[in-house]
Amino acid sequence: MQRWYFRSTSVMIVRIWSSWLVQETTEKNDFAPEDVTKLHLDARDNKFMEFIPNIDVVVVSSGHWFAKQSVYVLNNEIVGGQLWWPDQSRPMKVNNVEAFGISVETVLSAILTQPNYTGLTIVRTFSPDHYEGEAWNTGGSCTGTENPLAPGELVENGFTNIMHEKQVWGFKRAVKKATNKSKLRFMDVTRIFGYRHDGHPGLYRSPDPNKMNKRGPDGRPLPQDCLHWCMPGPVDTWNELVLEIIRREFEGDRNSS
């Protein structure tokens, strides 16, 4: 999507968009119509995999798109769906949480078996959201959260926890399939950033100053963004963690040589 080249250090940073990290198609498939995205959970997304051999450090992050409408295909068979399942009399074999775990295994296995890739892969864990009261699309809010939570104030989020568990599951399964000389590291931000409910755009994502003070008919604030991060603190810390992992790995390589 974007590339930034720093001439003073000959470093290029590339951001590549891959919503689910696995292959997606839109063509009609069996009883799934053309207008619904099909995710082939056991097939890698070649839109970014083709770049992997030429990259020194890969940071992989995913998960939240599994809340969006999609159909799950495994071994060429439709096995489940999210916000889509036309025949309620027929049980789904794979739900969105399980689909996420399978996708993690698929993409990491593809990276760890990619010929000629000797770089470092960092898996950033599932990012916690902080919608309070309701969900993101039903009036959830993070208004007034101006400071990090104190120890003991963290409210467990069941969906976040199970998504994190499935990510760990996929990670461990992929490690067993590694065949190349690349390195894989797990950067766990899920629980610690559960305390940073103050780090989201919230209602300030909108440039409209009037929206910040408006409320809906029920008295609640208008839709907010309590999922992405923008306030000072969390993202800066993620950058520090990534740089520390890179420093340790590459210093280790120099010491060993």
From TrEMBL:
Keywords: Signal. It comes from the Eukaryota. InterPro entries: TBL, TBL_C. Residues 2-244 form the Trichome birefringence-like C-terminal domain. The keyword Zinc does not apply. The keyword Signal applies. GO terms for cellular component: Golgi apparatus. PANTHER family: PROTEIN TRICHOME BIREFRINGENCE-LIKE 18, PROTEIN TRICHOME BIREFRINGENCE-LIKE 9-RELATED. This is Protein trichome birefringence-like 18. It comes from Hibiscus syriacus.
